[in-house]
Specification:
The complex is a heterodimer.
Chain A: E1 2-4, E2 9-13, E3 23-29, E4 35-42, H1 48-51, H2 60-63, H3 72-86, H4 94-126, H5 137-143, H6 145-166, E5 175-176, E6 179-180, H7 186-194, H8 196-216, H9 218-223, E7 230-235, E8 247-251, E9 257-262, E10 271-274, E11 283-286, H10 290-293, E12 296-297, H11 300-306, H12 313-324, H13 336-356, E13 375-382, E14 385-393, E15 399-405, H14 407-410, H15 412-426, H16 435-447, E16 464-469, E17 475-481
Parallel strand pairs in A: 7-12
Antiparallel strand pairs in A: 1-2, 2-3, 3-4, 5-6, 7-8, 8-9, 10-11, 13-14, 14-15, 16-17
Chain B: E1 8-13, H1 23-34, E2 39-44, H2 50-56, E3 60-67, E4 76-81, H3 96-107, E5 112-119, H4 132-149
Parallel strand pairs in B: 1-2, 1-3, 3-5
Antiparallel strand pairs in B: 4-5
Helix pairs in contact in B: 1-4, 2-3
The chains are: A alpha+beta, B alpha/beta.
């Protein structure tokens, strides 16, 4: 939609398509068609942190999955990790931990596959400016039916891994305080082994598509919505990529360590959530660097940047090739999210293979407990990035405080910067704004694979306000979403 | 109405945590308990694209969901579904017609599709359990669907 006022022209892209949840972008252009302001707005909110107060802590791993149907496994496992702390389960049994990891890699595999093949690939295969009637998943299905099928079948395989470990594909109950309520039967294992080789082959193929796209469009990839930043993720004690458990590591734009191996329970000493009046989403930042300089990327791009190595052979070989592109320094290309996401997809299927051949998964020692605490933090790498769950409970076992920092919230500032940069590079100075030009903005957002549904915080604190100002700073229009 | 021939997939979807929105999964549970031959049952919160592959392996797919008004035909409506290829979807929501369209176009089958829409009345609150009227509608819809799935059965709609 394009609306014109006296001095500024306002462009609204609503809804942003092929992302999870609902968001919109507003761009203000001045009389010379220069971008005056560009912002990503999140237009729904959940209020979940308030809703969960007063519930028993042991309900959390199941209850938090109601946050969203997109990545319930990540919330399930992250809440379980926080509740593990509360029940004093500081180390799970090998069977329980490996079952949780298998569930998590299943989630990562299906989520990344779905995003790449069905949400992102139309832009990559047909071009950002292609006819929107073709530039969609149906266009992919028509011209590249095998890829479209692969996306569905890879998603299905990941869902089957989740079902075998969590009990259900959506909103499972497998992870419980201190462990798991099931192991993997031999029959379940054998069923998953049947399609493993095929999934691996397709993951290798998807990685090649993502890598080739980046290399063939290198000049575009270097500039498109890209900017230098800090990066954050958890890593294993030895610095390896670990999507399930580890200490927090943050690096700066050059790869220099800002902090490393931070105990999850102390995250508040390092991360602060800032607020801005125009967005429901908070803006997390690294405490020592402040709001203006401390924002950071999370997700596949950040994880491949922060880790010292990947502990599966083919994904590690892919990481090394990826790092060569930037001379070993962090990769700041927004479009490289796709390549890094496919490295993680390959890593996930390699880990699934490793775990399916591990007899510990048929073990029967599933739960441990220790000394009860009244507070617990869980941190996990969800498909979209680092996810934080923090609970405090009272003597009656009821939750008195809940704080969630979801991945998309951490990427809030980077996504806004990407929107701004793409708008300035591709819309500024153009007398006519086309659908293809506006799709460029969406392509940048889509690269992050944001899930906008659960990325907003407590109810009633920040009404959504859209203000239209002229070049002199005068408000010429204002809309408020109650 | 004639029996639904061949292998059948029943997908009952909705959120049991939102009262009558759980009608779809409740129907799936009821059909599952009946243990009918040649019938696969799937209960879920929402439709997802992999349901297209599952549908493609059956002759008939029935999408059972709660609705505010069953097309004016309380306690439920049952209608054939035309496949649709719609580009706008996310993992939040996929329409039954798109699932059917993907089954036809990507997996090359001619699976027949139907929608069973069951009237519900309480959607605006959190909580598990169906309202009394929705429960009655569920029982009627279950009896109806069972009659279509049983061998050599006929049913008046």
């Amino acid at each position: 939609m394009v609306a014109t006022t006296k001095k500024l022209k306002r462009i609204v892209i609503e809804p942003v398509t092929r992302v999870e949840g609902h968001g919109k972008v507003t761009i203000l252009l001045d009389e010379n068609h220069q971008v005056h302001q560009a912002r990503l707005h999140i237009v729904e909110f959940r209020g979940f942190e308030r809703f969960i107060q007063g519930r028993p802590y042991w309900e959390m791993p199941v209850a938090v999955q109601r946050l969203c149907g997109i990545c319930p496994v990540s919330h399930h496992l992250c809440a379980a990790k926080a509740v593990d702390r509360i029940v004093g389960a500081d180390a799970l049994t090998p069977t329980a931990e490996k079952m949780r990891r298998l569930m998590h890699y299943g989630q990562m595999f299906q989520s990344h596959s779905l995003h790449f093949f069905h949400l992102a690939s139309p832009d990559l295969l047909f071009g950002f400016d292609a006819d929107p009637a073709v530039r969609n998943v149906l266009g992919v299905a028509g011209k590249y039916p095998e890829l479209a099928k692969q996306g569905i079948l890879m998603r299905k395989y990941g869902q089957e891994v989740i079902k075998a470990t969590a009990g259900k594909k959506i909103h499972g109950t497998g992870a419980i305080p201190g462990g798991m309520n099931k192991n993997l039967s031999v029959a379940e294992r054998d069923e998953l082994l049947k399609d493993l080789d095929q999934m691996h082959e397709w993951a290798v193929g998807a990685l090649k598509i993502a890598k080739d796209y980046t290399m063939e469009h290198l000049e575009l990839a270097k500039e498109f919505g890209s900017f230098e930043s800090n990066h954050l993720s958890i890593v294993r004690d030895d610095g390896a990529m670990d999507l399930y458990n580890g200490g927090l590591r943050a690096i700066d734009k050059d790869g220099k360590i800002i902090f490393d191996h931070v105990d999850n329970q102390k995250y508040l000493d390092y991360i602060i959530e800032g607020v801005k009046s125009w967005s429901y989403m908070k803006f997390p930042f690294i405490k020592t660097l402040g709001l203006d300089d401390g924002w950071y990327h999370v997700g596949p791009l950040a994880r491949v940047n922060t880790c010292s190595f990947i502990d599966t052979p083919q994904a590690e070989a892919a990481r090394r090739e990826y790092k060569k592109l930037t001379g070993g320094k962090p990769n700041h290309f927004t479009l490289a999210y796709h390549w890094s996401r496919m490295i993680e997809t390959l890593h996930s299927i390699e880990k699934i293979a490793e775990l399916l051949h591990d007899p510990d998964l048929q073990g029967t020692d599933l739960v441990v407990k220790g000394d009860r605490r009244d507070e617990g933090v869980g941190i996990i790498e969800a498909p979209r990035g680092t996810l934080f769950h923090h609970y405090r409970v009272n003597k009656d076992d009821l939750v008195t405080m809940c704080n969630l920092i979801v991945s998309t919230t951490s990427n809030n500032e980077p996504m806004n910067r990407a929107v701004r940069k793409v708008a300035q590079d591709h819309l500024s100075g153009r007398p006519e704004i086309t659908e293809g030009m506006m799709n460029h903005v969406e392509v940048a957002i889509r690269a992050y694979d944001p899930c906008l549904s659960c990325a907003t915080h407590a109810m009633g604190q920040m009404p959504l306000k859209v203000t239209l100002v002229d070049a002199g700073g005068n408000v010429v229009d204002e809309k408020v979403k109650e | 109405m004639k029996r639904l021939d061949g292998s059948a997939l029943i997908i009952g979807y909705g959120n049991p945590g939102r009262l009558d929105d759980g009608l779809g999964p409740a129907l799936a549970d009821a059909i599952d308990r009946a243990n009918l031959p040649n019938v696969t049952v799937e209960g879920c919160y929402q439709l997802a694209i992999e349901h297209a592959e599952l549908a493609s392996r059956h002759d008939v797919v029935v999408f059972a969901d709660a609705c505010v008004e069953a097309d004016g035909n309380e306690p439920f409506s049952f209608r054939p579904l035309q496949p649709k290829m719609d580009a706008s979807f996310s993992t939040h929501s996929v329409e039954p017609a798109v699932i059917l369209g993907l089954a036809h176009n990507l997996f090359g089958t001619q699976t027949a599709g139907y929608v069973l829409a069951i009237s519900g009345y309480a959607f605006d609150d959190f909580g598990e359990g169906l309202s009394a009227n929705a429960r009655e509608n569920l029982d009627a819809a279950t009896r109806f669907l069972q009659s279509l799935l049983l061998p050599d059965a006929t049913c008046e709609v």
